Amino acid sequence: xxxxxxxxxxxxxxxxxxxxxxxxxxxxxxxxxxxxxxxxxxxxxxxxxxxxxxxxxxxxxxxxxxxxxxxxxxxxxxxxxxxxxxxxxxxxxxxxxxxxxxxxxxxxxxxxxxxx
Length: 116
Fold this sequence. Notes:
With 116 residues, the chain is of the alpha/beta class. It has a single domain, classed as Response regulator (Rossmann fold), CATH 3.40.50.2300. The strands form two sheets. The protein has a five-stranded parallel beta sheet, sandwiched between helices. Helix 3 packs parallel to helix 4. The longest helix is centred in the N-terminal third of the chain and has 11 residues. The mean pLDDT is 93.
């Protein structure tokens, strides 16, 4: 599965990718602008979006993705409940908070029907 991981904590993104997303093709970017560029340039099966990004908030990114008519499945992956709630309200399809990342394969399977 091709995953766009929008996360501005490089070390966290590296650990998560190594521990939980090794069987997927993961592109990690730290900002809304980078995420929108990646989405324009390629096709992704799912987007994982954190709330606090280098250039704004994850819910703003989700609003922009949805306003552009992009139906890509989106998973909120903030460590804060209010961040995940805001991302969901903006149009995300699911939540897998950072402390629950060991469940990401389950969430991805439920969302897009793909197993690890």
